[in-house]
Amino acid sequence: MAALDQLAPLDELDRHLIDAFQRGLPLCERPFAAMAERVGASEAQVIERLQTLQQCQVLSRVGPVFDHARAGASLLAAVAVPDAERDRMAEVINRSPGVNHNYAREHDFNLWFVMTAADEGRLEARLDALEEELGVPVLRLPMLEGFHIDLGFPIPWAELEVS
Amino acid sequence: MNSLSMTFISPLEDSAAQRLRALLERGLPLTARPWQALAEQCGMSEGEVLAWVERWQREGLIKRMGLVVKHHALGIRANAMVVWDLPDDTVSEVGRRLAEEPAVTLCYRRPRHLPDWPYNLFCMIHGTRRERVLAALDDIVRRQALQEIPHRVLFSLKAYKQCGGRYTREEQT
User: Fold this and answer.
1) pLDDT tens digits for B74-119?
2) Chain B residues closer than 8 Å to A67 by CB
3) pTM, full prediction
4) CA angle in degrees (0–180, nearest 5) for B158-B139-B107
5) How far apart are CA B86 and CA A42, in angstroms?
6) Residue contact B161–A63, C-beta within 8 A
7) Which residues contact A95 (CB under 8 A, 6 or more apart)?
């Protein structure tokens, strides 16, 4: 992404923060001071780094990740659209309320998105409305069972340097 | 009452807690006292905000709290959704095993939609390059003895949208 490409490479402090705090943000009055102590920096430095990482889109945010299954209703959905219309259809999906992820993937079902709502009824209504607007059937794939505990993702810094 | 509905905040509980949740979905303000800033916005004390968050963590409504990384921006651009067509009587067991693989970042069972969609288990594998992701998958297939199980790898071509979920009613229009 342009914003990151314009930025100096992430330094030791940035990496340390990303490695140490994808989970377990200290739950106390001054969390950034507690983080600073762990990584050997000042509170002001930690806040400044997090602001920069957020501005250049390395971080989408700092805070809680809610459990989709408990935080409301959500499901993974997919549509098969002609390649020539993919960008246009993706825009329609992005404008639809409650969509938080939307990817093109290599398959006949070539647009994959996550639709969310406060409850099941609203979720179905949103999907029905979108299906009508798109004019193609929406494959609806609710989660039946989740096996993974989200612990964040170890960043392969060495691989990123050579690539 | 099932376990799912018990975790929802009942309407009898404070609507300030609902406001807090809506604010938290957007992330913490990056200031020295982020909880205090949130408290002011939703009419609670800082201590009450911390107590709610602590409770939501304990109950599992909050899965993790910390830096939410956008992998693509960092250069982790190969993102594969691997889908498997497993027999119904083994899908859960295989799901549990795949979830323990370090390369697998998410693993869910979902319904088939025959005839268009025969796959009932989904997992995500992220990496810097396509070849590395495919090598990790080969390794998993071999170690977990899944050679006979039909599966497909759907690499992402483009991210049109990637952001946190918004569930709270207040944000609906």
Assistant:
1) 888 888 999 999 999 999 999 999 999 988 988 999 999 999 999 9
2) 60-63
3) 0.75
4) 55
5) 51
6) no
7) none
Reported as a single tens digit per residue, the pLDDT across B28-38 is 999 999 999 99
Alpha carbon A78 to its chain's center: 18
Q: Give the pair of three-digit tokens for residue B89.
A: 């009587």
In A2-72, DSSP assigns E strands to 59-66
Tokens of B35: 């909880």
Chain A stretch 75-104, residues whose beta carbon is closer than 8 A to a beta carbon of chain B: 76, 78, 90-91, 93-94, 97-104
Predicted confidence at residue B10, as pLDDT, reads 45
Query: Hey, what are B73's tokens?
Result: 């921006």
User: Taking CB atoms and an 8 Å limit, are A60 and B104 in contact across chains?
Assistant: no
Structure tokens at B136: 């990790």
Six token digits for residue A163:
């690539």
The ipTM is 0.76
Please name the residue of chain B whose CA is at the shortest distance from the CA of residue A76. Answer: B110
> Does residue B127 belong to the interface with chain A, where contact is any CB pair within 8 Å?
yes
For B124, which DSSP code? E
Beta bridge partners of A59: B69
Q: Does B1 touch chain A (CB under 8 A)?
A: no
Chain A positions in Cβ-Cβ contact with residue B36 (cut-off 8 Å): 29
Residue A13 · residue A49 · CB < 8 Å: yes
Query: Which residues are bridge partners to B68 per DSSP?
Result: A61
User: Rounded to 5 degrees, what are φ and ψ at B68?
Assistant: -100, 105
